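Section 5.1 Outputs to date
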Amino acid sequence: MRLRDLQSVSYQDQYSLYDDTQIKIFELDAVSLPVRVEISMQRISSSNFFIENWYPIMDYNQKVRKAKLELKYPGIIGIRYKEQAINSPKSEVKDNRDNTLSWKLEDLKVLQVGTDEPIPVIEIAPQRFSLEGYTSNMDSWEGLAAFIAKLNHQKETLPLNFSEEVKQMVEGIESDYEKVSVLYNYLQKNYRYVAISLGIGGWMPRPATEVIATKYGECKALSTLMKGMLSAIGIESQYTLVFAGDDYRPLDREFPINQFNHAMLRVPLKEEVIWLECTNSFLPAGFSGDFTMNRDVLVVTEKGGFLDRTPDFREPAYNSIETIYDIELLGNGDARLKGLSKFSGFPSIDYFLLEERGQEKQKRDYLNRELGGGGVLIHNYTLEKSNEKEIPVTSISFDGIIQRFGQQTAKRIILPSHWKKLDPTMLPTGTLNWKEEYMIRSERTVELESNGSKIKIESEFYSYRLESILTTDGIKISNQLEVNLPTEASQEEKEKLVATINQEFLKHQLLLRKLD
């Protein structure tokens, strides 16, 4: 087969609506197995700004018998590389104009899914580079940032009439954070996210004047517009590059490379530094969720830039759930339920999305599933969204029925001391502060068989406190769970800890003795 026999298809990544990248594909159909396929590929680019890394092993459970990489480049341009798990020496040849680096590998070890072994890779980056006439060097992070600064030059300039409108929006507001919040909220409500990556447009933002006229933009354009609005009211901000999403790999601070796919803003206020995710339509200013959380970033200044790191949001204020339940036991084991829940930070995000985009049936199904343990049927609810500065908060009051809340025997009622289970999705940062309080009443006369109890568990990564007492109003149960996993904890470690905690919940049940 030749190149003309392959199909040409458009390639869209998860961030772009329009993209001028195309790939050639070959579909192997109607052949008898086993079959051997050999592919020779040549890629031509008009720029050396981005050079793909070389992975001799392309997938897990794949046996690679031979792999070869050859890099040929003009010596005057230069190239840099970094090896990881490459157990073969390179060879180097130089002539008057070009240099050639090559690696030959044989019988590579098969990588298993879930392995902790490093993946063989050679990262490749230029020294000097050019993109559509814009040149710089990548020997340092400052050089890469200086290149981005050239692309961004004066793009944030606002039309005079719009600049005056921006000043009027914050007139009379003294707090710099509140000013930022007002403008950020205006951006969220009036501009749509639309990604267009054509040529240099994948790196150069559209001018703010165009964004204002069209009312849309991608991360670069919206960040640039927000930068211009803040500048109009005298607040400094800095365009910042980050790798967003789930496939993030930490930067090697000693090896500058173009390893970014997203733009945001760094805003150094007097009292704090906040980060603005300008493509988000509902979160408060300063809280970007886990999309760009705890990442090395390249901050761009007028003449260069520097590396910084986004917040990890591990403080309790960003990972807090507080719920008060009032439960009335019925004779058949069901219960009437009234509750008030407050979700702060990450736990509130799904409720923000639910309120903004969910249909009524979706909302009720979600609340029935998430506002307690099993068997909940919510009859009425009120959901209120608010922000405590940069912390999103959702407060929900509700009432309904709990089916089979207690297990009935002839003389006892067995109740859960911790009704809802912990889930790994509740630990995006690895930390959680979860408080619950139950007041349980009964149609029948009952008493707490143990006359109250206190339990305290201190473990390496979590603590759990449980107290149950008999009061004149009923049986009061208070519990608090604090989780504090290391930042580098894997998903497997999270799931293992969650299973341990849920098992601990099951150990502690309340026994009520029936007195009539």
